[in-house]
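Dear colleague,

Thank you for sharing your sequence with our group. We've completed the structure prediction you requested, and as agreed, I am returning the results in plain text so they can be pasted directly into your records. Please verify that the sequence below matches your submission; if there's any discrepancy, let me know and we will rerun it promptly.
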Amino acid sequence: MGILSQLSQLFISTLPTVIFVFVLFFILNRFFYRPLTAVMKKREEETTGAMARAREQAAAAVEKARQYEAAFQAARQEVYRQRESARRSLLEDREASLKWAQQQSEALINEAQTSLAAEVARSKTELLSACQSLGQEIAETILGGAARADGEGVRS
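Please find the predicted structure tokens below.
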């Protein structure tokens, strides 16, 4: 029985250490590990919540960016539409001005042609009368000279 008595003596001598370790375990568990675990759990929940909120905010930011891009694209298309409308209006005004200028120039050309035709007719009339009077003068000069030549020959 030597071994059993030695073991019982050893157990009795280590009993205070075992009790001290269990008491220390309960004290550390109660005042250190539980609060530490609670803090870590709370921190994990807050981190997870913060990450979820960040994801939601990122999704909202992406949605806002998409809406902004759509609004920007719509505004750009409106500007292009207004530019096109202004360009068409200017082209129509230009076309109307060109037509008006063409009509005015055609009217001036017609007026000039009419005036020129009248001037040509008047010039022809003047030229014809001048030709007739010149022809008469030439005929009188030629015939008058021949008549004088015949008359002078008869008298002599």
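Summary note from our side: The CA atoms of residues 22 and 28 lie 10 Å apart.

Kind regards,
the structure core
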